[in-house]
Design a protein that fits this description.
The protein is an alpha/beta fold. It contains 13 helices and 15 strands. Helix 3 crosses helix 6 and helix 10 crosses helix 11.
Length: 410
């Protein structure tokens, strides 16, 4: 079975566009949360804060035609994918384009375009609906656009598993390369659901923090006073490549991806199973496939919701026993908010930067210990540590549990 390595990274995030800006903000423990500016938030909204991508201007990255035809979710995806391709040193003109695939997804898709065109329908009638609406809203158009711009003719895939979507895309990319179907895959996710309907809907189901008076303190995974997650937006991309192909072209290698597992709770459409059996099985299976029994760091799903953090902690304890207390664990969502379907990919980019730089980024806003969340969550400040094996968890509505294992390349 072929070994699979990570050779390129790309990111559009609430704390920086581009991996250099992202790294600097992560190591400083910078929050990307603030009052919503993407639409007019009235007092009717119980939630008025989110983690927006700042200073993103489509005209800086696209011509006028593409900027108009693409939803914000697609724009984020292509900008992150472009950085990842360039960071990996992939030159399409020198590649077998039929052996390069695009496994990129979204949890929600083009929600902004749906809302905008619904308004057009109500105010101006059906004949004024944009002919581009369908390709703005469907999720498979996201990888299709990336493939089209680069001429990548391998398989495209958009697995949709809510907040675990992009993590699954990365895992499925691993399997495709291991099987020899493709040599290179652009893998990741994107979401841009900070819209009137998106925020109102998540607020209505009581999933979001209402800490409107202190936005930067609102995302507080594992803290006793957490009250919900923060809506985020952005895109994360990784270039997965067979080791043979990477070495042949002299590529820089960030890490090796060697374990992937996907399980389902079959318990509840939004709440995790208190027995945590399938979260536990996912972690154990990913580690087994990677051939490891211990890890140096866990990048947690860590949403800042009462149930997720409690049960993810419980699952980690059941997998590692007393050793769980010695493992550094952190939640990138404390800084970037919850990027929904893009979260796992954006957080996987962070794990690559941890391996490369020997640093574990913090869980910010961890101020008061919860007796049920009593592990080492790397509170508030980054730590220097040589990281050889990382376990990455993503848990999505619907009971989807995905775990990945990254290793320092040797």
């Amino acid at each position: 079975m072929r070994r699979v390595v990570i050779t390129g990274l790309g990111i559009v995030s609430p704390i920086g566009i581009g991996i250099d800006s992202y790294f600097e903000a992560l190591q400083k423990g910078q929050s990307g949360v603030g009052r919503i500016s993407l639409f007019d938030v009235s007092d009717d909204y119980s939630v008025q804060i989110a983690a927006e991508v700042k200073d993103f201007k489509a005209e800086q990255y696209f011509d006028v035609k593409d900027a108009k035809r693409l939803d914000r979710v697609q724009q984020f995806a292509f900008v992150a994918a472009k950085e990842a391709v360039e960071n990996a040193g992939i030159m399409p003109e020198k590649e077998d384009l039929e052996k390069i695939g695009v496994y990129v997804t979204s949890g929600v898709g083009g929600l902004r375009s749906i809302e905008d065109q619904q308004k057009v329908l109500m105010e101006r009638g059906p004949r004024r609906i944009s002919p581009f609406l369908i390709t703005q809203l469907i999720i498979d158009a996201i990888p299709a656009y990336i493939a089209l711009k680069y001429g990548f003719k391998g398989a495209t895939l958009s697995p949709v598993n809510a907040c675990a979507s992009s993590t699954q895309a990365i895992g499925e990319a691993l399997l495709a390369i291991q099987r020899g179907e493709l040599d290179v895959i652009v893998a990741g996710g994107t979401d841009a659901a900070i819209t009137p309907l998106g925020v109102a809907a998540f607020a209505s189901m009581r999933a979001l923090s209402k800490r409107n008076d202190a936005p930067e303190k609102a995302s507080r995974p594992f803290d006793k006073n957490r009250d919900g997650f923060i809506m985020g937006e952005g895109a994360g991309m990784l270039i997965l490549e067979s080791l043979e192909h990477a070495e042949k072209r002299g590529a820089h290698i960030y890490a090796e991806l060697s374990g992937y597992a996907s399980t389902t709770d079959a318990y509840h459409i939004t709440a995790p199973d208190p027995e945590v059996k399938q979260i536990k099985r996912g972690m154990q299976t990913a580690m087994q496939k990677a051939g490891v029994t211990e890890v140096d760091y866990i990048n947690a799903h860590g949403t800042s919701t009462p149930l997720n953090d409690k049960y993810e902690t419980k699952a980690i304890k059941e997998v590692f026993g007393e050793k769980a207390y010695d493992i550094p664990i952190s939640s990138t969502k404390s800084m970037i908010g919850h990027l929904l379907g893009a979260s796992g990919a954006a957080e996987s980019v962070a794990t690559m930067l941890s391996i490369k730089n020997g640093i574990i980024f913090p869980t910010i806003n961890y101020e008061e210990k919860d007796p049920e969340c009593d592990l080492n969550y790397v509170p508030n400040e980054a730590i220097k540590k040589d990281v050889n094996v990382i376990l990455k968890n993503s848990l999505g509505f619907g009971g989807h549990n995905i775990s990945l294992v990254f290793k320092k390349f040797r």
